[in-house]
Fold each of these.
Amino acid sequence: AQSVSQHNHHVILSEAASLELGCNYSYGGTVNLFWYVQYPGQHLQLLLKYFSGDPLVKGIKGFEAEFIKSKFSFNLRKPSVQWSDTAEYFCAVTLHAGNMLTFGGGTRLMVKP
Amino acid sequence: DADVTQTPRNRITKTGKRIMLECSQTKGHDRMYWYRQDPGLGLRLIYYSFDVKDINKGEISDGYSVSRQAQAKFSLSLESAIPNQTALYFCATSPLDRNYGYTFGSGTRLTVV
């Protein structure tokens, strides 16, 4: 069965710092990749997704992610974080031929003003 | 109105009680899912349904049951609640085309005492 690992459980940054959150998956076949964000007290919202094509994907709110197939990774980045980026971030994977999302354990990001 | 509505938003119940969590959607999606969220574990799939007559177990279905009353309604039941079912529960929907990803409800916070 596929699995998704997010190695950073908690990240604390100051405003304007750069962000990179790691995500690795275990499946060797073709996958679709997602990053979701959950702001405090809210439901999950889609930040960005990768299905095919350019491995550098740009999402909402200045976030981007890079798919590196050889490393089974899909890391999330943002050049300069804001206090409003404080949230929990989830990486998720689905098999290319399927529709079932498998989530990582989440990374809780706190941005200090 | 929200695209995916979950009721109740919060619930405290006693061990051994039966409880039902409800989910309704206005997206017109065929596929519906129930996940539970626990700190550090991300979201784990409980049950999913690809249409009214199709119900499938997810990775952690023990202790839960579901009912797909209509295309727009998917209920999750805990027949005899236990404290380790204390969690945040999310309903999600998706269309047949996986490119659109999932739409999540706002969640139900369930506490079993």
Amino acid sequence: QKEVEQNSGPLSVPEGAIASLNCTYSDRGSQSFFWYRQYSGKSPELIMFIYSNGDKEDGRFTAQLNKASQYVSLLIRDSQPSDSATYLCAGRNSGNTPLVFGKGTRLSVIA
Amino acid sequence: NAGVMQNPRHLVRRRGQEARLRCSPMKGHSHVYWYRQLPEEGLKFMVYLQKENIIDESGMPKERFSAEFPKEGPSILRIQQVVRGDSAAYFCASSGTGRSGEQYFGPGTRLTVT
């Protein structure tokens, strides 16, 4: 059974701080990982994807992947109240196979 | 609008009726995925289709649910004889080719069964 685990939160951080969101996965065959942001009542919005070990940066967001530890993380620098949402971690095998999602972590950025 | 389109956005059905959900993928995308999200739960994969082919339907209940992606027109997820437990948000995502094959989601259809 392929599983992706996330702490449900809520994770509360003050405005301007770094938010760290973590995710572990059970399937060693997983090749690519995706972070989505989902506001309440809305659809998931792709933030970043990563498939190589190490860090990948895009603006205020950094995704980190450690395949040996089966661990993925998302760092949000200079957190803003508008970042308050549920963050979904997803993994997949190679190609266009379906995504396996975690249940998401609720982030609350306090002004 | 070059994004993934879904309609209707909200659908109310009585128990026993049929629900038809439609999805048009992003321009240039040929892979379509349907996911279901129950309240306070994560997204669960249902079915993966390409034009005229079901590639993977391992997440779709064997009874009452069916999906298609015809040569012309949108992909359709069909739920026959709906029950209250079918009430959920149904999201469609599409992807193109390429190594990452990132999926982009439509706005979803919120199905309520009364």
